[in-house]
Structure formats: C-alpha cells, structure tokens
Amino acid sequence: MRWATIAAAVEAAATGLILLLAPALFGRLILGGELSEPGEALGRLTGIALLGFALTSWPDPSAHSVARAMLAYNLLATLYLCYLGIAGKPVGMLLWPAVALHLLFTVLLGWRAGSRR
Predict the structure, then answer these.
(1) Which domain holds residue 44?
(2) Distance CA 54, CA 94 (A)
(3) Which of 8, 18, 61, 112 is most buried, judging by how many CB atoms fall within 10 Å of its CB?
C-alpha cells in the first residue's frame, strides 16, 4: 500500500504548486471566489508548506510517520472542505471532487494504518 502514500504526496505537491503559482485560480476553482491580496500571499505560503510536506515522503514513503501525517492531512482536509460545502459557503466547481479525492486518500491511508497493526 506504499503507492497510497506516494499518490497522496503527489496530490499534496500538485496542490502546493497550484497554490504557489496561481492562488487566485485555486480560489476560484475550489472556493468559488476571488482571493484578496493577503489571501493570495497566504495561499502561496500554504503552497510552500504543502510542497515541503509532500517532500517528507521522499525518499522513503513507507515510513510510518509519513503515512500517519498524510492520513491526518487528508482527513482534516476532507472534513474542512465538506464543512465549506455543507455550510453554504461559496464553493467552486472542484470543491466536491477535492472532497472525494481527500476522502479516498483518507480511506486508503487509514486502511494501510489499520493493516500495519
């Protein structure tokens, strides 16, 4: 199940790159609105953090701490994005696909963590 950690890391890196290079696009596609100038700066900083986080899985994505961190990230991202969609906040066309992707990684990484015990 090592591939689940790698796939989650690739998703985190891709999200980080989008946030770093085009935070306004991310804001429109996921959040359904425009970001303020400080929001764009925070988006870029978040992109940098996600890229660093994704790099923790290299060179050893099988490390237990990496898988646990990826599980926590995906679970919390799923819950927060779901909250945004359900609470009636403005959402973009990619919000629910993002929820589904993070939920898939949460299930896969959770299954992996459960099978290691």
Answers:
(1) 2-115
(2) 21
(3) 8
